[in-house]
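lol ok so funny story. i was supposed to be doing the assay writeup but got distracted and ended up predicting the structure for this chain instead. priorities right. anyway since i did it might as well share w the group, maybe its usefull for someone
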Amino acid sequence: MKFSTARKTGQKRAGYVIRYGLTLNNCRRLRAGREPLMKQIIGAVFSSLAILAAGCRTARQSAITHDELVQRTQEILDAVAPGNPDPWRKYFAEDAMYFDEKGRSMDKAALLKDVSPLPKGYSGDIKMVNAKSNILRDTAVLTYDLDETEVVFGQELKARYHGTDTWVRRNGLWQIVAGQMLRYYEDPAPGKANAAAYKDYAGTYELAPGRTRVVALNQQELSEQRSGRAAETLIPEAPDIFFRKGIEGRILFRRDTTGRVDALVDRRNNEDIVWKRMGK
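and the output, tada:
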């Protein structure tokens, strides 16, 4: 029984060999051929993983954070008073565009030329506040307010600005490619009120039919109200010149050759809109 079973098993295995064309030597040659191929595949996989890991490390190393943007920008600001161009040269790209609070458009060369120390007797500093950032892959936008203090021969001046810078990463280096600075509007210092002269201004002024402006005297205060709008207080700055709180521009009262007020002038950015006085 055992011999018969073994013989049958041998016949069965022989059948497999004949059916699939396999021999022991063929199997060994096939296995030997596969081993170098598997080694190559495994080597390629490990190489790819190593490259991927190195790329991830490089990406992490060249990424930038909000705090780094703030630190670099403050470094630029600290260089303003002494007129140090190095941070500006370092952090602004060669093709950078910059628009300042005076309305000037400058490239990097013009920007660096504009960096100069404060004159003798002048000092000051600029502090960044309320910084916010949006960082997306190779681009970062930083927006912030600036509190500037300038001392001119012992007299202190204050100014507030708002800046926005766009940083871009190129070849692992983060630099500013565009920047813009705006100055916040500040009301002028009020002048001495001359309530006795306010009666000269009271009256109705017309821009066009149906478009009027009424100037009224309320005790020691002068106000003006356009048709369909709320009344606004006129704050004196100088004789015949007033301003409204939080509104850029001036309200001037024009006098004719006899000294009589004949028009209200709404001055905006050095351009005038004239409202003619109605009646007397």
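Confidence is low (pLDDT under 50) at residues 1-22. The CA atoms of residues 200 and 259 lie 10 Å apart.
back to the writeup now i swear
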